[in-house]
Design a protein that fits this description.
The structure is a homodimer. Chain A has helices spanning about 5, 15-35, 45-55, 60-65, 70-80, 105-125, 135-145, 150-160; strands at about 85-90, 95-100. The first copy, chain A, is mainly alpha-helical and about 160 residues long. The relative contact order of chain A is 0.07. Chain B binds a DNA duplex (30 and 30 nucleotides) through helix 2 and helix 5.
Chain lengths: ~160, ~160
DNA sequence: TTTAATTAAGTAACTGGTTACGAAAATGTA
DNA sequence: TACATTTTCGTAACCAGTTACTTAATTAAA
C-alpha cells in the first residue's frame, strides 16, 4: 500500500481511523443508493432500537447511541420525511416527543434486514484476520472514555517537561 | 460502559469507529485551542510533508495523504491565512501550485513539535494494552482497499440468496 | 498544427456529525 | 405559591470531509 499515514505509525492513527470510518460510511450510502433503498447508514440502529422498545424519545436515543441530541433530531427528521418514523407529543410531559416506527417501516423491515445481515457479514469478513480487533478496540474506547486525548496529552506535556 | 453499539457487535462497528475518530478530532481541536496554538488537527501531517520535501503541490499532498484534493485545498487555504504556508505558481506548469512552509512556520515548529510528541505519546498510551491493534487495523484497511464495503456486501447478498 | 484528451486546482453544494444558544415544560425549593 | 433550576427539544452556525462540476494548462494524436 505504501501509505504515508501508516509509516507515521502513532501520528497517523487518528487520520487512518477517520479514513476507514469515512470509507465505510460513503460505501454504505452508495450501496443503499445503488439498490434504490431510501434509507441511510445509522438508520438501522434506530430501527433496531424502535423495534425493541416500541417507543422512545429523542433524548433516550441520543443517550443510547451516545450521539448528541441534535444529531438524533436530524436523523429522525429525515426518517419522518421518508415516512419511517412518526412522532407525537407525550401527554404527561409535553416536552417529550414519542417516536414510533410507521406501518411503512414495519412492512419494509424484512427487506432492510436482508441488507443489514449482508452488511454484518461484511464486517465479519473484514475482521476475519483480526481476531483481537474488537476486544482491543474496546479497550481503547474505554481508555478514551476514562480520560480523553486532550487530558492525556496535557499530562504528557507536563511529565515530559525537563525538570531543571 | 454498557454500550448499545458494543452490544450490537458487528453492526455497531462503523459507528464506533466514527465515534472514536470524532472524539480524537474534537479533543485535539480543544487541546490546541486551550493552549492558544493557532493550528488544527491534521496540519501536523502537512507540516511534516513540507519539512521532508521542501515543496509539494496540492495533488501530491492529496495523493500522499489519500485525501480528496478539495480537502487539501481547504486545509492549505487555512494554513495560508494563518501564515504557515506560501504558494507560488509553477513556472514550468502553470496549473500547479508550489507549496512551501513560511519563515513563521519554521520558527514555530519546535513549539508544535512538543505537542505532537506528547500526542504521539498519548496514542502509544492508548494502544498500550492493545498490542495487536495496529497490525490488525492495517489488515482491515488493506481488505477494504482491495474490495470495499459496498462490493463485499453486494457479494454477500448474492451468495446468501436461497437457491431454489 | 489543430484538435481532443488529460491533468491540476478551485468552487459549490452536500453530509453527518459537533457545540452553543434559546424556548417551553417540568421539577425543586424558599 | 412563586421563583429558580433542570430537562427536553429545536435551531443555527460550524467543521472536516465528500462528490460533482468548471476552468485553465498541458499533452497526445489526427
Amino acid at each position: 500500500m505504501n501509505d504515508f499515514l501508516t509509516e507515521m505509525e502513532f501520528v497517523g492513527l487518528t487520520s487512518r481511523l477517520k479514513r476507514l470510518s469515512d470509507s465505510l460510511l460513503y460505501s454504505t450510502k452508495e450501496l443503499y443508493k445503488s439498490e434504490g433503498l431510501d434509507i441511510e447508514p445509522n438508520w438501522n440502529l434506530i430501527f433496531i432500537l424502535l423495534q425493541e422498545n416500541e417507543t422512545m424519545t429523542i433524548t433516550e436515543i441520543s443517550e443510547t447511541l451516545q450521539f448528541s441530541h441534535p444529531a438524533v433530531v436530524k436523523i429522525i427528521n429525515k426518517m419522518k420525511k421518508n415516512g419511517h418514523v412518526e412522532t407525537r407529543t407525550d401527554t404527561k410531559d409535553k416536552r417529550k416527543q414519542i417516536l414510533t416506527l410507521t406501518e411503512k417501516a414495519h412492512k419494509q423491515l424484512p427487506v432492510f434486514e436482508k441488507y443489514w445481515t449482508a452488511g454484518r457479514q461484511t464486517v465479519m469478513d473484514l475482521l476475519a484476520d483480526s481476531p483481537n480487533f474488537l476486544e482491543e478496540f474496546l479497550k481503547i474506547e474505554e481508555k478514551v472514555n476514562q480520560s480523553d486525548y486532550k487530558e492525556r496529552t496535557l499530562n504528557n506535556l507536563k511529565n515530559d517537561e525537563p525538570s531543571y
